[in-house]
Amino acid sequence: MLLVGCSVLPEPPVRPVLYDFGPGQLAPAGAQAPLPPLALETVDHASLPDGVSAVYYRLAYADAQQLRPYQAARWSQPPQQLMREVLQARLGQRRAIIGTGGAMATARADGQPPVVLRVELEEFSHVFTSPSQSMGLVRLRATLTRPSAQGENLLAQRLFVVQQPAASQDAAGGTRAIAQAAEQVAQAVEQWLEQAVR
Fold first, then answer.
1. C-alpha torsion 32→36→39→44, nearest 10
2. End-to-end CA distance of the chain, in Å?
3. Which of 5, 74, 116, 181 could cross-link to 39 by cystine, CB 3.0-4.6 Å?
4. Which domains occur in the chain, in start order?
5. Helix or strand or coil: residue 101?
6. Other Cβ atoms within 10 Å of 115 Cβ, number
7. SS3 169
8. Closest CA to 54 of 66, 35, 36, 70
9. Three-class SS string for 10-73?
10. Which pLDDT score, from 0 to 100, does residue 40 have?
11. pLDDT at 160
12. pLDDT at position 197, please?
């Protein structure tokens, strides 16, 4: 009886694997002329509620409109937070990055408040174009404004889309490709800001 009872005990649930963007830059970048400070507003995710950390994929060849979560894979933080961190790490190499709260009220560069970068994360998923091919897809809309006494003046806006081929057709390959795409987006945003803010 005891052996029979033990054999029907439920197995403990499998803990999901946690993914992030890795350790980041291990050595500081070379010295360059500093740039004016920038206020970075919290990254929003257009299609996912705040706090969601599931790793999502799409089957573009079957039903591209459906976001499906990997059951045994999670991001270590919500995607909007991961994207904010990679942007802050990239943009903060040459300029001070501040939040849009109280610190912004006192920050000044040549007597002017810092420009504000708002980013909306529109896509952050592993997209399968076929059962044997997939990519990490990051789509981000960036809006740059300058605060004034009358409100905010729009300086520039741009949509950034990066696709990075995945090395394997699973959560590990997808998260790695998404991380690489996010880094490329951050690099493109950095280059765009240097052109947009003179």
1. -50
2. 79
3. 116
4. 34-196 (3.40.50.10610)
5. coil
6. 21
7. coil
8. 70
9. CCCCCCCEEECCCCCCCCCCCCCCCCCCEEECCCEECCCCCCCCEEEEEECCCEEEEEEEEEEE
10. 94
11. 97
12. 75
CB-based contacts of 141, cutoff 8 Å, min separation 6: 119, 120, 122, 157, 158, 159, 160
Backbone angles phi, psi at 192, to 5 degrees: -65, -45
Burial 72-86 (b: 16+ CB within 10 A, else e): ebbbebbbbbbbbbb
| Contact yes or no for 68/112 (Cβ under 8 A) | no
Q: Which two tokens stand for residue 9?
A: 């005990």
Residue 114 CA to residue 140 CA, distance in Å, equals 21
pTM comes to 0.83
